[in-house]
Amino acid sequence: MNIFLDLFLTFAKIGLFTFGGGYAMISIIEDNCVNRKKWITHDEMMNITVIAESTPGPIAINAATYIGFKQARFLGAVIATTGMILPSMGIIYLISMFFDNFLELTMFANAFKGIKLAVGLLILDAGILMVKKMKKKLLSSGILLCALAAMLAGELFSLPVSSVTLMTTAAAVSFLACLVKGGKAN
User: Fold this and answer.
1) How confident is the prediction for the chain on average, in pLDDT?
2) What's the pTM value of the predicted model, to 2 decimals?
């Protein structure tokens, strides 16, 4: 199949059938682009996830853009990104045109309750997969456990815990550890 058509259809399918935003799409993107298509490696997917989370814009669109660029340079990036966003734009446009009180319809309200649960499971699946494939080193395991403890404490005691603060702190700790070790990555 033509790479451009393949990029478009792959990301259009992901964009059309995945609810819940970028985090829910990570495991679907990995399944399609790493396991099935072999466009990127698992390590590249981990790096894409970190970089896409750290840069402006939705994580799934950033991932699609990177993968498209890797496969077919600039035009590949444009086509993969278009494939990712076009289904959502179409659905939102149709909903805005025909359903003024969309969620007041019992059928749709119940469907979205089920979708919320599925999205949570997709995000959990992506997180578990990343932890399983993470290199088990003392620093990365320590940062993971501290971040998990901070998030749990925030939920239990209704404290505001910013994911941006957690990521910035993790990056700073990793950077300082790298400096202390003389520039060798941990």
Assistant:
1) 87
2) 0.64
